[in-house]
Amino acid sequence: MANTTKSSEQTRSDGVSQTDSISISQVAFEIGIRITSSQCISVGAKVAKAYKDKHGEKPSKHNQTVNGQVMLVNSYMERDRPLLESAIRDIVK
Q: 81-91 and 37-55 are packed helices; what angle lies between their axes, rounded to 10 degrees?
């Protein structure tokens, strides 16, 4: 049987893993901010820069459907949530 427990460093008290995927729109919704498509693009650019400044490399990318088209978008994890929240609050004032 595989060990399915996660270390306390990787899991928040609510059971969310620091490596769980998150998105800009998801984080905006969770912090109670409505975000437009154009604001989402601006937030994405700001988060990508902050991520590169912090980690020394660009974030990885994944395919996501955006307005009916499949596009490559940056991938973020729960551990990046502070970067996303900060950028959202800066762009959507």
A: 140
Q: What angle do CA 52, 54, 56 make, to 5 degrees?
A: 50
Which spans in 9-79 are helix H? 24-30, 37-55
Q: Count of CB atoms within 10 A of residue 16's CB?
A: 14
C-alpha closest to that of 47 among 82, 10, 7, 1: 82
pLDDT for 35-71, tens place per residue? Answer: 998 999 999 999 999 999 999 999 999 999 888 999 9
Q: Please give the Cα distance from 18 to 35 (Å, whole number).
A: 24
Cα–Cα distances (Å) from 7 to 11, 13, 81, 83, in that order, read 6, 11, 19, 23
